[in-house]
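User: Here's a chain of 189 residues. Predict its fold as C-alpha cells.
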Amino acid sequence: MATDKDAGTPRIFLARHGMLIDPAKLALILISPMQRARKTYELMFAPTTRQIVLESKAIITPELTEWKYGDYEGLTTKEIRKLRESRGLNGKDWDHFRDGWSPEQVVERLDIIIERIREIHKPNMHGENTCDVLLVAHGHSLRSFVRRWLNYPIDFPLSAMLEPGGIGILSYQHHNINEPAFLLGMALP
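Assistant: Prediction complete.
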C-alpha cells in the first residue's frame, strides 16, 4: 500500500496483457544501497529470476543513494516549514541542502549514471541488442534523474510524481542518443 501524501490522488489506470519489465531484456540494474530500494528490487522479481537471470546484472550503486538532507533529513515539508518558522527563517531562501548534499553534488552523481547508461545504449539504438536498464531508487533521486536525463538543470520546475513502487520509463526520440525523452503512453509487449 502506498503511504506517501499523493497516494490518495484519483487516477486512471490503463493496463493490457504483457510484461512491463522483461528480465531477459535487462542489460543493467542499478540499485540504491538503501534498504527500501533493495527490498523493492526483491519484490519486483521472483527469487529464481534474480538468481538465474539477473544476478550478474544487478549492482548496488552509491550514486543512487537518496539525497542527504542535513537538518531536514526525514522531515515532511510541513514539518520543515514549522521548524523554519520556529527559527525565524520564514521568507528567507530555503537552503534544504544545509549540512547535506549540494545540488551540484547530486547532479554529479546522477550524471555519472546517465553516462554509464548511454554507453550501453549508444551502440544499440536500433535494437541491435536488448539493453534496457532498470534503476531502483527513491522518489527525489529518481525525479531529479528524470530532469538530468532530459538535460534540464536540477532545479528545473518539472512537476513529476512517482508513486512508491511506481515505474517511469525514459527513452530517446528518433532512436537518437542525443534526444533523451520521457516516454508517455507506453505499449506493453
